[in-house]
Amino acid sequence: MSLYGKLQKLQPSIFHKMIDLHSHSTFSDGSFTPRELAKHAKELGLSALALTDHDTTAGLDQFMAACSEFGIAGVPGVEISVDVRSGTMHMLGYFIDNKSDKLEQVLRRIRSGREDRNTEILEKLNALGLRLTFEEVSAFASEDVIGRPHFALAMLKKGYVSTKDAAFDLYLGKGKPAYAERYRLSASESIAAIVDAGGVSVLAHPFTLDLNRSALRDFIKDMKGKGLQGIEVYYSEHNSEQQREYESLANEFDLLTTGGSDFHGQLNPKVELGRGFGNLKINNHILEDLEKRRNGRLGG
User: Fold this and answer.
1) Could you say which of 98, 140, 271, 273 would form a disulfide bridge with 153 (CB–CB 3.0 to 4.6 Å)?
2) How many angstroms separate the CA atoms of 108 and 115, rounded?
3) Within this chain, do residues 102 and 126 fall inside the same structural domain, yes or no?
4) Cα–Cα nearest to 186, from 107, 91, 83, 111
5) Which structural domain range is residue 156 located in?
6) What is the value of pTM for the model shown?
7) Do 80 and 199 fall within a single domain?
């Protein structure tokens, strides 16, 4: 019996409730520990939650244990950084085997590239007269993955910017004076890494690719040919027009539709777990479809 089926049998009364398939913990750039995430999901009445930390699976053991403790369905996931010409791209992987040595080797290489990038960002900020140390930046990262959001918080604390968004708009965003590139997988490599670890690959928040509809359709068609299995349709920052567009593309190419808030806790306090900016609703049937695709019973 599937995870979804077991939970439905044990707790049928919760199956009118919502789920969230996109969240981050202190092991990447979230402010909640994996256990705190599971507890918060339970308090909010969610029936299932996926942990999808950036380029790491280090928090999954704690997360899955906590989900079991609090009686919600835990989905082991990851969000992989992908190299693309236009915009930015992330690939979500669901039901991955976090003990996969091959996957860990891939993620370790990505994290190493992040460390090199962090050094370059720090050097650029210091050259611009914004004096920071790694100790000041890492103070905002509870675990081992330091990213641009932590630089932004350190800059905010020292008074160099008035808001976190301003740090990206003025210094850290793509094309800004302190931006630095880093190693990422190709789209096909990210899909292969997820599939090799037994997971289901889903394109995260397609709007960040900065493609028009025609170009996005061509891109998704190409990704489908490389093994893509789903699109994140329901997302905190998707407006109704985007949601309809992504649903249409998913239907056209027989891809799963998934969704999540992209919850980071205090690093983005306007986004709530399971609710996004307040009106996000992701139904339990999406988890059921995801498990079917995982087990090869729903196309693909």
Assistant:
1) 140
2) 11
3) no
4) 83
5) 118-172
6) 0.83
7) yes
